[in-house]
């Protein structure tokens, strides 16, 4: 049996990022959700940040999806 090389060709893959916008107020939500929004860099309504698409950021976004608008973008 011949063992095939499992390595893939690495080309110029665009870096995936997330554009995250706070669209609802955090008034009335638990303190831990406010802390997550602050950790993402969101302070006021309609504030927007661009973060790398990583499991850590995805987890933070999943905790407060009800107050965010998220879209994936690709940068060359």
Notes on the protein architecture:
It is a single chain. A 3-stranded antiparallel sheet has the order 2-1-3, with no helix packed on it. The protein is an alpha+beta fold. The chain has 2 helices and 3 strands, in the order βαβαβ. The protein has a domain of 50 residues: 2-Layer Sandwich (Ribosomal Protein L30, Chain: A). The longest helix is centred in the middle third of the chain and has 10 residues.
Specify the CATH architecture of the domain at 26-75. Answer: 2-Layer Sandwich
DSSP summary, beta strand count: 3
Shape descriptor reads elongated
CATH homologous superfamily annotation of the domain at 26-75: Ribosomal protein L30/L7
Summing up helix and strand content along with how strands pair, one would put the structural category as alpha+beta
Helix/strand order: EHEHE
Which sheet architecture does the biggest sheet show? Answer: 3 strands, antiparallel
Q: CA-to-CA gap between the ends?
A: 40 Å
Spatial extent as radius of gyration = 17 Å
> Which residues form runs of ≥5 with pLDDT under 50?
none
| CATH fold field value of the domain at 26-75 | Ribosomal Protein L30, Chain: A
Mean residue pLDDT: 88
The helix content is 25-40%
Strand content: 25-35%
The CATH class of the domain at 26-75 is Alpha Beta
Report strand order across the widest sheet: 2-1-3
Oligomer: single chain
The helix count comes to 2
